[in-house]
Model the fold of this input.
Amino acid sequence: MPDAAVWAAEIEARRLAGDGLEFEPKAFAAATETVWPNPELQRFLDVLVASHQMQRIDVRLCPNSVCRLPLDHGMVANGECPHCHLAFTESGDDPIPSIRYRITGEASRDIRWIIVVHGMNTRGAWQEDLSWLIANKLKYAAPVLIHKYGWATIDVLLMPLHRRLAKTLGEKIRRAVDYARARGLTAAPDILVHSFGSHLFSLILQDEAFSDLRFGRVITVGSIIRPDFAQRHRS
Ligand SMILES: [Zn+2]
Done:
């Protein structure tokens, strides 16, 4: 029967790896070969929550027994699971209340500020949603710079145009970095690039003229950057 030392080691390993940070107690018990339910493990988890090393989260799970995706408020309000597409409001299945734990601490750092570059010819509605989410989910204000460009296509014959769009974006980022630095925000920005935005971002990274730019986390959505980009352009 594993004891608190085994559980503590598992928590610490996950914290360091930044992986498996959110879990259901039953799954944690299985990972540490502990029988569940287990009053000792429950007490161990309670102590971590009380000392703010973990959060206890009330979640609702998809009622589909083969899915069980944790549903956020939006998904519950929407009445449909985005994973298995069960329309649970229609079918009269209520989401299942459950408890999860989230390890807090060193693994993740705060978002200092973020640049968002959208994809091709989109209205970029998701960016507005994202800024709204960032503004509402964080307990502090993280400035968000949204870059929109005009019409573009991925046609390789239009490379000169792509370079021009990338230059414009790079210069805008540099101005934003200067502006932020002048106001005491010295951290490199995180950047979220979508689709064609990821192509422009890769051009900036290859451009000697922008070698002074530094970035924190890079998040790509629907990226069209070649998977071997880092190997091909390692400096
Ligand atoms: Zn589901």
Observations:
- The radius of gyration is 22 Å.
